[in-house]
Amino acid sequence: MRRVLLAICLQVAMIPIAYSQCDTIGIFTNPAAPVNTQRPTMLNNFNWLAQKYLINTTGASPGNDSIESPIHQIDNDIIDHLRLSLDMQPQDGWELLRREMGYEQNGTPKNPKPENPYIVMYNKYNSVMRIFYARSSSAAFTAARVTLNFSSGSPSQTSLLDLSEGLKALDTTFIPHKSFQSPSAFDNRLHKWFYVDFPMQYDPCTCYYTSRLTISVELINSADVQLSGSANGKLMAIASNSGPVNQADQTYSFADLQGAAKKGIKTFKDINKFKQGIDKALDTMLKGSPSTAASIKAGLTGLPALFKSSNFLKAGLAAAPFIGAAVSLFDFFTGGGKKAPPVGPTDVALTPTSIDMTINLSGTITSSYDYGSVIFWNPGSNTASYSDVDYPYYNEIMGIFNLLEKPKFKMRFSRERVGNPRDQTWFETEHDYILDDTIKYILNPAARLAIQEAKAALIVSGDSSDLWGPAGGAWFMEGKDQKTGQWQYRSNYYDLDCFNRQVFSIRGSSAPNNINWLPRGRTYIKFMLNLKRLVDTAGAQNVLFIAKYPIDIDNVTSINIPGTCSSNFFLPASNSELNIFCNSNTYKTNRVTRGRSQEPIVNRPQPANILEATLERAILAPNPTSSYSSLIINTNKKIRLNIFVADQMGRRVKEIASNKYYPIGNSNERVDVENLPSGIYNVVIQNGNYRVVKKLVVQR
Hints:
Elements: E1 4-11, E2 52-54, E3 66-68, H1 80-85, E4 94-100, E5 118-123, E6 128-134, E7 143-150, E8 179-185, E9 193-199, E10 210-220, E11 222-228, E12 233-238, E13 250-254, E14 264-268, H2 271-285, H3 290-298, H4 303-308, H5 323-326, E15 330-336, E16 353-356, E17 360-366, E18 369-370, E19 374-377, E20 401-403, E21 408-420, E22 424-435, E23 439-443, E24 449-462, E25 476-480, E26 487-490, E27 494-495, E28 504-509, E29 524-533, E30 543-550, E31 552-556, E32 570-572, H6 575-583, H7 585-588, H8 610-614, E33 615-621, E34 628-635, E35 639-646, E36 652-662, E37 665-672, E38 679-687, E39 690-698
Helix pairs in contact: 2-3
């Protein structure tokens, strides 16, 4: 019996630099221009864009020792949409995490040979991990099941897999043992690729603790799995190694393929399939109200053209008013971030990923066949004391966005009996919601995205007959949660820089011919972020990021509406706030379980941390500058330092000092920038594995 275990180990020491947030290292795996100043011996030398890869696996033989790359394998229906869209391009955010072709980093053939080739990729603009696997021996199966979870002996667990069960803020009680499972069609022919996609959630505390992930691959002999909700039908209908595996329009992943799923993660093969999926879901959900379904669908006619444009969202969210309806069925969505092709048509092929709140699963999977094993460190790990063997080529933290704390709202409720008791009386109710406190968010610096626009909406839940929703304001149907049986309704989206003044009102009346809808379930805030790329921006789309979080409600007798708008109610968490939180029991409870990771690495004794103990001051002046700046450092001990200037992509653009000896007291280094373009740079002061980073602005 053979088993494929992609056990992904994470052990991260927080580098004691000027930032408390996990630092961006500046690693890029683009085959044409790889960068790895952290570990040059593991600079990516694998060209995943090549037409064929040379392989040294157990199934390889003279004359049959190569495999076509996923975007060049022309006779494989499983991945044909990726080939047609060239959906592995570095310019679109794809990075290489790990690969196995049977050769060491220096090109030496491995002995013994590995059994199966694989490629693990990650898209930093859409926070998706993509795993390609190919068979290298005979196996009479038509489907594979891929599972991602934290290993049973993992010393800690992070929020990386939270999207499998729905988003929660970091300070919410953590539920361990989350997992993803995804089915994939499996081609029995030798060296044919299959793949799965898993969305990653950003956890800014990742680098404080040690955790281990396991990805296992099993081949399936028979299955009968049903989908219900907004995606009715057969997901897997396999018997005697034949039959369909996935619905044609999209691929799926869940917390559990055999009935325990809370959410359904879907990756659509292209934007047209995404539009068709929405239309089908609306028809399924709104069978009793075809006019409502038709009205929503009519508003989405411009959706495919918008997503195919290289100018996607650059003009702002106001230019695409139908986006709110397009993502109404989803708790989470990412799409965009791609670049138009350099020649030919300007349409951009897109494979959006979403989490559907309306899916239920039931069924069985039997006669699975376990398949091979491999272990590697998860991106973002501190691998300074480890060999190159398990080092990921792209060693940066995954994910895009998260909330530090659960958002807090105030809610005023009143109920009044009106009418004449001798004739007829009824009750009138009022619910008013308003934001109570600042929303603290964290944006992953490794994603290299910035917020261009931020909007949010309030979502309320309740029973609904004949699809009547809340009265008293503008409310739009989001969909039906199959787990609770409740319908969800959304307010308008409002700019977060004036969200503090928005009052969300629901009015009900039990009088005849009136609407008496009352909120009875969970309440959420749904973010719509328009993110712009910070690098390689020419001809590149913005990124649409949608995320829905539960909120806390404080019942009050009255609410006060602020007189002016304030942008101070949607702010990034500070470095000190992050550091305190990542060290707190609030974060560690249920996440940190045992072993040396119980204490954050930043709090442990660091006898080798010479830089932190020695460097008392580092100042750049003038800053900004047009020609040069002086770096003034003060040390209390003798020390050797490397000092260099890096651009925002992490590439060294100027060397200042190499292993230079500095005496006790003040020292001065001239940082000449006359030959550097205007922009923001980092002056890096380094001793061994420790750094202090100072921002330098070149302005002309």
